[in-house]
């Protein structure tokens, strides 16, 4: 068995996602150490938005569907991190804790509610008339 398959079976994620996790952590630590956390978070959130838009575009094309599925997995994995970085950036502008708490709640609960409400209704099975 290849080492990449073993890692994927053990962790549930590909080695590319694990490497991306580590790069994001290194970028955040570097930004914190060099007092550039706002710039690093802005760049990471902008990269997340670019990947999200690329995912939306590639999922519409049949030829690029596999890339779209990979990007969908990546955006799903990193949504929480992007939400926290966005909340950090907003907290640098607005200093109202109640507003930040409400925004954080909407950012975390919103996708779950949308996925529950956007679910397709189950179709009824029609009986054949004989």
Descriptive report:
Helix content is 77%, strand content 0%. With 130 residues, the protein is mainly alpha-helical. It has one domain. The mean pLDDT is 86.
Task: Name the shape in a single word.
Answer: extended
Q: What class, by secondary structure content?
A: mainly alpha
Helicity level: over 70%
Listing every helix as H and every strand as E from the N terminus to the C terminus, the arrangement reads HHHHH
At a glance:
This protein has 130 residues and is mainly alpha-helical.
Record the SSE blueprint.
Layout: H1 3-11, H2 15-33, H3 37-58, H4 65-93, H5 97-117
Key words describing this protein structure:
0% strand, 130 residues, extended, single chain, mainly alpha
